[in-house]
């Protein structure tokens, strides 16, 4: 997507609004930034406003992170309050019908594909610190990171093919299937995507989706000190093994060498076929979004979740 179209889309998504925020702390630890998703009432679902914010953060890192003098070498992506992310903020679909329409689906899949493709190619080592749920788009987000640290209570679910009954709901919209194949393999990705199975930390350690597991889960919010937030602490330990030559004496590896390796390795994924693949994925997503099957599944989900109470999404 060219820069003008991207800026227009970011502006539009800010106007679409919604709750929550994506917060960027470049001074989280020496050389390590923290990006946190904050929309606690909806398990850190991404509202359009949050998608625009994430896109802007990634955009600015894309412009700066490759510079050898830029002080950051790594980044932790996490969710606030004991959960990672529950994908698109479904409350938007009950506030305005346009969010059930194909035009919005098309915009969202373009914006999120662009954001997460750039994110995965940043000249920074990235790790997702995952406590609680990473579901739907939230599961897709974790595939954009180089590594994943899960708490023992983490649950990963590519919910896309399953909405309680047999009807199709939607397909992957944030570029997650291609990245899942790159992390695992075609056979494993197919099983995970079609079954929509909830993966535990143990499942993910076995299949390779998790790189490290924290035996404890987070106790509180990100305002807690790192020492009492075990998933972030474990992610930091994992990163520090890469970044430091000598941790005890705080001697870091050369940041230009880290950046250069990241650049070489992320350019190995053949860019053109991947872009073509993204195109196929986006078309499939838009063709299913807003169709009867999806709308029925959404209704069903709301009914099941509400059990006769007020609408949840
Ligand atoms: C774009 C597309 C894509 O993947 O490409 C998508 O992402 S589509 C979105 C795909 N995501 C989903 O289908 C996830 C839907 N959510 C769930 O299945 C569940 O909420 C779990 C995430 C498994 C958590 O279950 P648990 O029983 O622990 O909590 P809960 O269901 O009471 O959820 C706590 C509160 O968060 C809200 N909540 C949860 N997920 C939400 C979402 N995606 N959008 C808006 N609100 C959401 C619930 O309605 C509830 O609100 P109240 O406290 O007011 O009752």
From TrEMBL:
Gene3D superfamilies: 2-enoyl-CoA Hydratase, Chain A, domain 1. PROSITE patterns: ENOYL_COA_HYDRATASE (PS00166). Its main location: cytoplasm. One of its GO terms (cellular component) is cytosol. It is found in: Cytoplasm, Cytosol. Its EC number is 4.1.1.94. InterPro entries: ClpP/crotonase-like_dom_sf, Enoyl-CoA_hyd/isom_CS, Enoyl-CoA_hydra/iso. The keyword Lyase applies. It comes from the Eukaryota. It catalyses: (2S)-ethylmalonyl-CoA + H(+) = butanoyl-CoA + CO2; (2R)-ethylmalonyl-CoA + H(+) = butanoyl-CoA + CO2; (S)-methylmalonyl-CoA + H(+) = propanoyl-CoA + CO2. GO terms for biological process: fatty acid beta-oxidation. It holds the Pfam family ECH_1. GO terms for molecular function: methyl/ethyl malonyl-CoA decarboxylase activity. It is an enzyme of class 4 (lyase). Keywords: Cytoplasm, Lyase. Belongs to the enoyl-CoA hydratase/isomerase family. PANTHER family: ENOYL-COA HYDRATASE-RELATED (PTHR11941), ETHYLMALONYL-COA DECARBOXYLASE (PTHR11941:SF27). Decarboxylates ethylmalonyl-CoA, a potentially toxic metabolite, to form butyryl-CoA, suggesting it might be involved in metabolite proofreading. Acts preferentially on (S)-ethylmalonyl-CoA but also has some activity on the (R)-isomer. Also has methylmalonyl-CoA decarboxylase activity at lower level. This is Ethylmalonyl-CoA decarboxylase. It comes from Clydaea vesicula. The gene is ECHDC1.
């Amino acid at each position: 997507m060219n820069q003008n179209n991207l800026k227009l889309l970011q502006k539009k998504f800010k106007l679409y609004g919604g709750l929550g925020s994506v917060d960027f702390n470049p001074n989280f630890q020496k050389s390590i930034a923290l990006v946190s998703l904050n929309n606690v009432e909806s398990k850190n679902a991404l509202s359009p406003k949050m998608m625009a914010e994430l896109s802007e953060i990634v955009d600015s890192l894309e412009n700066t992170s490759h510079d050898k003098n830029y002080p950051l070498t790594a980044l932790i992506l996490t969710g606030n309050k004991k959960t990672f992310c529950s994908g698109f903020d479904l409350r938007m679909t009950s506030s305005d019908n346009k969010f059930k329409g194909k035009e919005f689906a098309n915009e969202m899949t373009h914006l999120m594909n662009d954001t997460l493709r750039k994110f995965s190619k940043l000249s920074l080592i990235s790790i997702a610190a995952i406590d609680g749920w990473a579901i739907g788009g939230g599961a897709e987000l974790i595939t954009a990171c180089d590594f994943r640290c899960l708490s023992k209570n983490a649950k990963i679910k590519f919910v896309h093919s399953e909405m309680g009954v047999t009807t199709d709901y939607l397909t992957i919209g944030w570029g997650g299937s291609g990245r899942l194949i790159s992390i695992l393999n075609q056979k494993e990705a197919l099983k995970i995507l079609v079954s929509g199975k909830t993966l535990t930390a143990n499942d993910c350690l076995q299949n390779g989706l998790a790189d490290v597991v924290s035996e404890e889960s987070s106790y509180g919010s990100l305002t807690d000190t790192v020492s009492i937030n075990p998933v972030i602490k474990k992610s930091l330990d994992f990163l520090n093994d890469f970044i430091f030559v000598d941790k005890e004496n705080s001697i870091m590896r050369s940041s230009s060498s880290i950046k250069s390796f990241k650049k070489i390795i992320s350019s190995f994924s053949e860019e053109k076929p991947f872009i073509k693949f993204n195109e196929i994925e986006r078309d499939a997503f838009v063709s299913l979004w807003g169709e009867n099957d999806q709308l029925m599944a959404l209704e069903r989900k709301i009914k099941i979740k509400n059990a006769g109470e007020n609408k949840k999404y």
